[in-house]
Amino acid sequence: MGTDVEKKSFVLKGIGVSPGIVIGKAFLYDRFDAQVSFYRLRDKNLVSKEIKRFKAALKESEKQLLEVKNKLCELAGREPLYIIDVHIMILRDKMFINHTVQYIKEMLVNAEWAMKMTIDRYGEIFEKVEDEYLKGRVSDVRYVGQRILRNLSGGKKEDIPKIGSKDIIIAIDLSPADTAQMMINKVQGFATDMGGKTSHTAIVARAVEIPAVVGLESITKIVRTNDNIIIDGAAGLVVINPDPEIIKVYEDKQKHFEKAQENYLKYASLPALTEDNYKVEIGGNIEFIEEIPSAVSHGAEGIGLYRTEFIYINKEQLPTEEEHFSHYRSVVGADGLQWATIRTFDLGGDKFYSDPKLAKEMNPQMGLRAIRFCLKEVELFKVQLRAIARASAFGKTRIMFPMISGIEELREAKKIFCEVKMDLRAQGIPMGEDIEIGVMIEVPSAVIIADELAKEVDFFSIGTNDLIQYALAIDRINERVTYLYEPLHPAVLRLIKQVIDIGHRAGIRVAMCGEMAGEPAYIMILLGMEIDELSMNPLAIPKVKKVIRGTTIKESKILLEKIMAFSSAVEIRDFVNDYMRQRFPEEFQLDGS
Amino acid sequence: MVEIKTFEIKNKLGLHARVAAKLVNISSRFKSKIFFERDGKVVNGKSLLSILTLACPLGSRITIRVEGIDARDAMEDLGKLIEDKFGED
Questions:
Q1: What angle do CA A143, B13, B38 make, to 5 degrees?
Q2: Dist CA A395 CA A401 (whole Å)
Q3: Nearest to A546 by CA among A517, A591, A513, A584
């Protein structure tokens, strides 16, 4: 691969972060090095002209950023991104401007070159800074610098507002201002070199339902502006210069996807009841309160997983109790929802600030994160717990602790929560009477001691993404081993079954909130295990409901028994795919997997 | 008029971008020249990027030097902001 890029068809695999299919023209967004010309000034008389050009570009850049900011303010319910203010201040920064002007004057280079030198200069300075967060600020200088460069090269057409509606953005990485702009302009889709499921780009894409693939590593080097391109956000695939036949296939897929979405929406408001009356509770996974209406309209009965990380990330300071509370207050007791399961902070401490690069370089999966981090930073944890407890006065609330690996962690977390509640009670602050406490089952050790954990919690919620990763020893950041990620691995299925059985024996509810819960092909297997609640990306709910309503618990148990007898994932997958295709021809024929 | 004063950074996250922006907003209101110094490194107090390059964490000490006709007022306002932990925790 990569030897002949002349209109040759390529397929790149990245991380699909937002489902849907788009077919369109690529627009290479930020490879400014390739598009900007650098040259020396032939004589000194040109200096003042270059400085003028530079100042004009500064002005234009500021105008654009102010525009983005104003439009964001107009969008109801959105806080203006403060980071845009910082970018505006960089544009006005005396030293930033002086250095560039100085370079033009003294080195006799054009404004583009001088700008590039200033960016590099700050790159070097920040590189030496020991503080990881401040080190990351060089990205802000770079974002601003790139904007100026684009404006210098007269590249108004390169700014996102000017991009046509059929364009698909290809970028190394997208800045907060860029992604905000995309939100406003409703671009068709995008693909980036950097980023992961929790990167800023990914979060925005999901929230606004734009198909997107990230973590493609080198797509900006392979794709050129105007290349034909297809993005399959569900599969994480990008097809570059597709053959006409491939385009046809994807056009059909796209039509089918859209029609199917429409069709499934009919199932949204129906209960998830099997033909023999087994009822599964259906929850929605969300990370923004703005997603609540979509969760309700797609048929969520409650929120089965509220990821609270977004309250922390992309913020320059720790959220206050009031900020936490205002979020939880919106989720708990929301119209149309019966319960809200709030998961406490599930990242490492390094994630308090937005920086997609940081997230990519580290492997924090097994580090000081989630409950481990919270038990170290008790004060910080308490702020979140207080806010959740206060919100519980407004509706059914469940708290879920992530990454529990042993009973001590659970006891410690419960003890802290107890203290928080006692404090609140002493202050006469109202709380819900029946806050349920549960643990995420995602570390294999938690499965093994599930019987002990079950004695001390009200529910389990199986986080399949992490459980699979830990059980199969896969470094999810290492693309060379992602092929091992297999929800149908017999070991994974046995772990899940064990958790559900133990939970039921102890008389507690068992939910699943990992990606597996939203995959229609796996639903009958989970039904066979008698899962109590499935919580998923809201968009997946209607199709899952359709499958549940089209089967019986009896049939599901027979299927489960059959697949549990196989010894390999391949056999199970083949069997399940065939079975589901026969049972639900409409749903499974075109998925191809 | 010259004012020189040393402060300790008391907010948890140190001089991060939002806080530095607040400092610059105040500095820029005054005619005086304003310099921030930490460990022998001196930067322009009206430049956001320059302040960030000082990389002041919690507990670090910075010296502010203000030169000009409104030095006293500038120092007072800057000092208030820092002592107030920039309105943060």
A1: 85
A2: 19
A3: A584
ipTM of the complex: 0.84
* CA dist list (Å): A511 to A154, A353, A400: 55, 31, 11
List chain A pLDDT tens, one digit each, 593 residues: 444 445 678 899 998 888 889 998 888 876 454 466 778 888 888 999 999 999 999 999 999 888 877 776 665 444 446 678 888 999 999 899 999 999 999 989 999 989 988 988 888 888 777 776 677 677 788 888 888 988 887 654 444 545 556 688 888 877 656 666 666 666 788 898 887 665 556 766 776 678 999 888 888 888 887 889 999 998 899 999 999 889 999 999 888 888 877 777 889 999 999 999 999 999 999 887 877 887 898 999 999 999 998 787 655 678 899 999 999 999 999 999 999 999 999 876 555 444 434 444 355 677 788 899 899 889 989 999 999 999 999 999 999 999 999 999 999 999 999 999 999 999 999 999 899 999 999 999 999 999 999 999 999 999 998 899 999 998 766 667 878 889 999 999 999 999 999 999 999 999 999 889 999 999 999 999 999 999 998 888 999 999 999 999 999 999 999 999 999 999 999 999 999 999 998 888 654 43
Q: Where in chain A is the domain with CATH 1.10.274.10?
A: 37-152
What CA–CA distance (Å, rounded) separates A421 from A392? 11
CB-based contact A316 B13, cutoff 8 Å: yes
For residue A557, what is the enclosing H or E element?
helix A553-564
* Extended beta strands in A453-532, E state: 459-462, 509-512
Q: Which residue of A has its CA nearest to B53?
A: A126
Asked if B47 reaches chain A (Cβ–Cβ under 8 Å), the answer is yes
Q: Which among A83, A94, A122, A354 is the top mutation candidate for probing chain B, defined by the most B β-carbons within 10 Å of its own β-carbon?
A: A94
Please check whether residue A375 touches B, CB under 8 A. no
Q: Is A122 touching B (CB cutoff 8 A)?
A: yes
Active site residue A327: no
- Provide, as residue numbers in chain A, all residues whose Cβ is less than 8 Å from the Cβ of B49: 90, 93, 95-96, 122, 141
Closest-CA distance of chain A to residue B74, Å: 19
From 3.30.470.20, 3.20.20.60, 3.40.50.1390, 3.40.50.720, which CATH number describes the A258-588 domain?
A: 3.20.20.60
As beta bridge partners, residue A440 has A461
- Stretch(es) of chain A classified as CATH 3.20.20.60: 258-588
Entry pTM: 0.60
> In chain B, what are the domain boundaries?
2-87
